[in-house]
Design brief:
With about 130 residues, the chain is mostly helical. It contains one helix and no strands.
Length: about 130
């Protein structure tokens, strides 16, 4: 019986020792696995930040391009509007010149008609007397 107890105690000791060493090695392996996962997470985080920065740069470049295009289109529209106004001003100035000429012609016609009216009055007075 002593021998059985001795074998059982040896078995328990061996199993316990094996379990303890397995625990120690597994713990070390788990720590390494955790450290590896931490490094992978940090790398993924850095990659995500870099990607985010790259996307922001691309987006800002896109907005800059849109604003530059808007500026160009605005300047083109402004020049077009300015040209239209210049043409309208020229047309109005020409119209004023034409109206001035028409006024001068009408004033000349009025003067001629007044002269003719005076002559007709003289002739009418001379004929009646």
């Amino acid at each position: 019986m002593n021998q059985t107890i001795s074998i059982i105690s040896t078995l328990i000791t061996v199993i316990g020792g094996t379990g303890y060493f397995t625990f120690l090695f597994a713990r070390s392996k788990n720590k390494q696995e955790i450290e590896r996962l931490k490094v992978e997470i940090l790398q993924a985080k850095n990659t995500a930040e870099t990607t985010s920065i790259d996307n922001d740069i691309k987006l800002s470049s896109h907005y800059k391009q849109i604003l530059d295009d808007l500026k160009t289109r605005y300047e083109d529209r402004y020049k077009e509007f300015e040209n239209i106004l210049c043409r309208k001003i020229s047309m109005l100035e020409e119209e004023l010149k034409l109206k001035d000429r028409k006024i001068k012609l009408q004033q000349a016609e009025i003067s001629e008609l007044k002269k003719e009216n005076r002559i007709l009055k003289k002739n009418a007075i001379n004929r009646s007397t």
